[in-house]
Amino acid sequence: MTSLTKKGPSGWIVILGTIIVSALVIMTAIAPWIAPHDPAKTRVGPIREPPSPQFPMGTTHLGQDMLSRILCGGSIMLQVSTLSVLVCFLIGVPLGLFSSYVGGVFDRACSLVIDAVYAFPGLVIAIAISAMLGRGVVNMALSIAVVYIPSYFRVVRSQVLSIKELTYVEAARGIGAKWYTILFRYVFPNVIPSIVVVATINFADAILTAAGLTFIGLGVEIHIPDWGRDLTSGWQYLSSGAWWIIAFPGIMIILLALGFTLIGEGLSELLNPKLQR
Amino acid sequence: MSDASCMAKKVFMLSEIVKVEHLKKYFPVQKSFLEQLFTRELSYVKAVDDVAFSIRSGEIFTLAGESGCGKTTTGRVIVKLLEPTSGKIYFNGADITKLKGEKLRLLRRKMQIIFQDPYASLNPRMKIIDAVGHPLEIHGLAKGEEKKKKVLEVLEKVGLTPPEQFINLYPHQLSGGQRQRVALARSIILKPEFMVADEPVSMIDVSLRSSIIDLMLSFRKELGLTYLFITHDLAVAKYISDKIAIMYLGKIVEMGHKEPLFWNPMHPYTQALLSAIPVPNPERERKRIELAGEVPSAIDIPTGCRFHPRCPYRTDKCSKEEPQLIEVEKGHFVACHLMK
Fold first, then answer.
1. B118 FRET partner, CA 20 to 30 A, in A228, B171, B205, B278?
2. B126 touches chain A (CB under 8 A)
3. In degrees to the nearest 10, what's the CA dihedral of B238, B241, B247, B251?
4. Would you state the pLDDT for residue A273?
5. Treating both helix axes as pointing N-terminal to C-terminal, what angle do A227-234 and A244-271 enclose, rounded to 10 degrees?
6. What is the pLDDT of residue A96?
7. What are the pLDDT tens digits along chain B (340 aa)?
8. What is the helix (H) or strand (E) element at residue B74, kind and residue range?
9. Which of A175, A192, A194 to mutate to test the interface with B (most CBs of B within 10 A)?
């Protein structure tokens, strides 16, 4: 931590992002014990009551306690985004490594497919795949993963293309290292910083996409508390003045996405020395 | 043939550790899409264009020349980091030109290369102990404690003392000279017989150069190493070499033992290069031969003698006919029409 603060503004940005994200993660983790009401239970209070001492964030159109729903509602989003980042990482990174290291026809074929996916608007593919797979955390994660695999692939591929021409890779060949040794001990460790940056920014995107999917009804079962879900059910009541049903979940989604974006942007500036003054 | 002469010939053959014949390395030139549409023929950078020499065991053979003359490419082709376009490479009498796979990996134990830029030749994410010990692991020679012991030993040898202080550092924590010592340690840990040293001191602080060169010279005795030394610095070449070959645009223009070459340079290019070496005595008058123009592009090599556009003594013949490398004195080869 102390070494981060010494690196100027980008160090502080990383710290701020980490604080936001870890606060939200901890909040979600301990929510079942601190929530004043069962977040799914209807009619714990009057319908659409504005924030009051008894219900600090108001109640929903079904009379659920908004505060409890905010505390518990991050769980699905965090699960989906973590899972999708994991899937992206496990597919995009090895594919990018092999494709650019091997080169030739394999590289061309991979790049063509990946570029085709990349050319589509992300949310449209995610909706299409999600509609095919159906509801559920895993299905959401998979449909989001498909959208973001190309960004991993492209970053890894371009990095490997430049790293594999460097002298230390040539030196590794000179001492008789096999191709996979070179790939995993000389090339891969030097790509990791870029992957970390992509992964954190990907986290933020995955959260927003997950919110989008839930908003149009492709999320999880209705009874599970979820910020995206509350946006869907709440926006119809905005015109009747019930701003609190969508305002609080919206703020939470923005905060979580902001936290990851801050980490990503800060790290990319820290790890990429060329951007530093 | 009598047995004795047969034996003699064999001994002579064996003492030749590296030999190249008609070595060529052309790099195809990338063309733009439009150019590809309109022209069929590929153009090439003729980095190395028909080079032949042999290095005897224990010798220090220097390739010298301006940058872009193909000396580095020659070194890389010999240690099989680049595939030659044509020609043959022999190592200890065996043809290694087409060697691949496992056999090539075994050969790498015997021939090593050390690079010019110590800032680029070490993996920034590998500790010194892993960087230096990796060749041992790759060839299954040592692991764990044994590896550590050997790494400590070899670091001591290259002058990084006390070695315990260095093994857990990363390359960015070392200076350029220290890094080059680490690179040197990595290449001698397998006890090779032959090493290509590609301008190993040109990027190092002048004050440290001689200590690294002396280190390399000491390995020659201690480990029986043979060097192919690549340099653009003739003062360094003069200090260390037994034999020198001067390259110009992918060809050897003059080759011979150090003394005759330095005392009696015959090729106009060699003469010009030697006259450019600074002399520490300001009183001494010297004639400087200044070459006109720049080194031509290796894509469009001049016809005839490739040096003729810059040569002060050129004749009509020079632009038409390419001179061959001929033995002018014993062991002193020159490629120039003036020699006939």
1. B278
2. yes
3. 160
4. 53
5. 140
6. 93
7. 445 444 444 444 458 899 999 999 999 887 777 777 777 677 888 899 899 999 999 899 999 988 888 899 999 999 999 999 999 999 998 999 988 888 999 999 999 999 999 889 999 889 999 999 999 999 999 888 999 999 999 999 999 989 999 999 999 889 989 999 999 999 999 999 999 999 998 888 888 888 999 999 999 888 889 999 999 888 889 889 999 999 999 999 999 999 889 888 999 999 888 888 777 777 776 677 777 777 888 888 888 888 888 888 888 888 888 898 989 888 899 999 887 6
8. helix B71-78
9. A175
Least Cα separation, residue B207 to chain A (angstroms): 25
Domain containing B305 equals: 12-56+68-102+242-339
Tally of domains in chain B: 1
**For residue A166, which residues of chain B lie inside 8 Å, CB to CB?**
120
Q: Is B31 inside any structural domain?
A: yes
pLDDT for res A275: 46
ipTM here: 0.84
Contact A167 B120 (CB under 8 A): yes
What is the average per-residue pLDDT within A182-194? 90
Taking an 8 Å cut-off on Cβ atoms, the answer to whether A171 and B121 are in contact is: yes
Question: What pLDDT score does B312 carry?
Answer: 85
CATH architecture label of A79-272? Orthogonal Bundle (1.10)
Nearest 5°: CA angle at A70, between A64 and A74? 125
Burial of A218 (0-12, 13-18, 19+ CB in 10 A): buried
Q: Return d(Cα B244, Cα B235) in angstroms, integer.
A: 12
Distance CA B51, CA B303 (A): 17
Of B81, B138, B187, the CB nearest to A177: B138
Is any Cβ of chain A less than 8 angstroms from the Cβ of B122? yes
8 Å CB contact between B133 and B141:
no
Q: List the CATH number of the domain containing B313.
A: 3.40.50.300
Look at residue B11 in the predicted model and tell me its pLDDT.
46
Q: How far is CA B43 from the centre of its chain?
A: 26
As beta bridge partners, residue B112 has B195
Chain A residues touching chain B at CB-CB below 8 Å: 166-168, 170-178, 181, 185-186, 189-190
Q: Which residues of chain A are within 8 Å of residue B121 when distances are taken between CB atoms?
A: 167-168, 170-171
Task: Give yes or no for a contact between A58 and A52, defined as CB atoms under 8 angstroms apart.
Answer: yes
The pLDDT assigned to A87 comes to 95
Residue of B109, B125, B203 best to disrupt the A interface, most CBs of A under 10 A:
B125
H helices, E strands: number in chain A: 12, 0
CA B77 to chain CA mean position, Å: 10
Pull the structure tokens for residue A62. 């079904």
Q: So where are chain A's domains? A: 79-272
| A222 in Cβ contact with A76 (< 8 Å) | no
How far does the CA of residue A86 sit from the closest CA of chain B (Å)? 24
Contact list, B127 vs chain A (CB under 8 Å)? none
